[in-house]
Amino acid sequence: MNTSADPSGGCGPARSTQWTSSWPTERPGARPVSRRVWLFDLDNTLHDASHAAFGPTSLAMTDYMVEHLALTHEGASDLRQHYWNHYGATLLGLVSRHGVKASHFLEQTHRLPGLEQRLRTSAHDRAVLKRLRGRKYILTNAPRDYAMRVLNTLGLAACFDGVISIEDMTMFGHLRPKPDARMFRYIAARLKVRPSDCVLVEDTLEHQKAARGVGMRTAWMQRYLEGRYRGAPWKPGNEHANNGMNRREVGVHPCRNPPYVYAKIKSIQTLLTL
Ligand SMILES: [Mg+2]
Q1: Own/partner long-range contacts of 23-32 (Cβ < 8 Å, ≥24 apart)
Q2: Which terminus, N or C, of the chain has the lesser number of Cβ atoms within 10 Å?
Q3: What is the pLDDT along the chain (274 residues), one digit of tens a residue?
Q4: CA–centroid distance, residue 42 to ligand 1 (Å)
Q5: How close is the Cα of 198 to the center of ligand 1, in Å?
Q6: Residue 202 CA, ligand 1 centroid: distance in Å
Q7: In angstroms, how far is CA 65 from the centroid of its own chain?
Q8: Are 198 and 216 in contact (CB under 8 A)?
């Protein structure tokens, strides 16, 4: 059952958590009980972002492009989609082609008034996350402030050892968000584990393909995917599948079991058995 954030959830008392350094550091003297590192995507993996955030975020991005690139609304919408298709993230296209400052774009497009009232998770998910052995990190292409708003509102912040947000995914002065394979290798190195010790829990197949390519294991979270995004093959007349197959959509693949997916899950609880 979905409930709003519950202060008595399975991760202990709800508290507002802020990690002061960009990269999580090991606790002094701590001995890990498991070498396994869980890398959790945030949106549409731990909560239903399609309901809570994606619509307003897309509108804000289009409005930003209208204002700063002097485009029509339709032109901005098309260009935003083009950059998503080509770069895997609208931000990367704006930075590389228009010199947009990433921090300004992220701040302007992730204000999302009323977000907290739309967020949902379950006490059960919080309890399972607490039981999951190994280190757990959020790995999101979203900005840190947004990720912390979501985690704190849902009472999930205390379930994780740290948050790796898009601000942390810079190499040699260039943004390298998911699905950049170099970044996946770098993350494992920074966390002092082998890629094979890492499990990426994600709804986006492109990200899993890259992670698997560097040796990570992958769990495809399908709970919040709409029916057309569960590996359904293209069918004539199915405009959703047709559009999806031509775009970097999150769950589109010509077969239902992409070879780089280690496990398909619809519940966080299933991770306890992996
Ligand atoms: Mg996602």
Answers
A1: 23/162, 23/164, 23/168, 23/190, 24/137, 24/161, 24/162, 24/163, 24/164, 24/191, 26/192, 32/134, 32/135
A2: N
A3: 333 444 334 454 334 444 444 555 555 555 555 689 999 999 999 999 888 888 899 999 999 999 999 999 999 999 999 998 888 789 999 999 999 999 999 999 999 999 999 998 889 999 999 999 999 999 999 999 999 999 999 999 999 999 999 999 999 989 999 999 999 999 999 999 999 999 999 998 989 999 999 999 999 999 888 654 444 443 434 434 333 333 444 555 556 778 899 999 999 999 999 8
A4: 6
A5: 17
A6: 6
A7: 23
A8: yes
Placement of tokens 């009472």 in the chain:
155
What's the N-to-C CA distance of the chain in angstroms?
A: 23
Say if strands 170-171 and 174-175 run parallel, antiparallel, or are unpaired: antiparallel
